[in-house]
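W.,

You were right to be curious about this one. When I first looked at the sequence I had no strong expectations either way, so I just let the prediction run and decided to look at it fresh. Below is the sequence, 297 residues in total, followed by the output.
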Amino acid sequence: MHEYKGEELKEYLEKLKRTFEVVRVVDPVKSKVSYVEGLDNTPINSSCFEVWNRGGICSNCISTRGIKENRTATKIEYNEMGTYLVIATPIILNHKKYAIEMILDIADVDTIVDLNEENNKQIEGIITQLKENLLKDELTGVHNRRFINENIQIDIEHGKSKGIDSVAVIMVDIDDFKEINDLYGHLVGDRTLKRIASILNSRIRADFDWVARYGGDEFIILLKNADEAIANRVVASIQEEVNNSNLICADAEAKITLSFGIHIIETGAMSYERVLEIIDGNLNRAKSLGKNRVVIS
């Protein structure tokens, strides 16, 4: 990740402007534009997602992903004016991480021809589906690790700007999942993962909280504006459903239990990396205490 000085960055951005319609420097954590060339009506410190005429943060923020993974990332975006290639590359400026976003109207390079209203609607549908697929776990249908990487930092560290005062972050693990795979086979293991994901997803507030598969048999739930009482109530509801759900196999029933590690924080009070460390530690403690338990802090 290159570290720029002020004048050096300005010269670099001016060079980029020869190729791209819009070049801007974005702080994706705060969702703010710090510098822009090519949009006369875009003030500094405006929300970076406003260029797409949306009321909220992009679900597929490539600037967040680029900084997180320390690489250049690309995506296709659209608004009523057309369809665009967006490239984001991470930089350091004044000891802080930003992303340079470069936006190109791809109709101008013959990538998309005849952008009439009907074609625009078709393209919009395709792009929307592609975005959903990129952020969805193929097996379980809930969000995936990429979604976590692109959203958890924003929700934990800067939720207050979106009216979120606190969050409950929950790490969920299926107890003895390896034994389920070994005893009943991977098809039953897959069925178990899908069933658990469905239960978790059914116990959160749609379009507000979220569930994502963290990896293997672990999931993360993020509850917004939630205190300890709300988190405990959601987890108790999940446990009740799971404890009453035996997975029917060919010749046996597999009893499923879950362990939970939970942490409640005020938004902006702690980095998301630290929160992940805490919930992972709480989860490990829950499992060491005998599994099918909840540890909250």
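Here's what jumped out at me. Helices lie at 6-16, 62-69, 117-134, 145-157, 177-184, 186-202, 228-243, 272-288. And, maybe more interesting for your project: Residues 109-115 have pLDDT under 50 and may be disordered.

Coffee later to discuss?

I.
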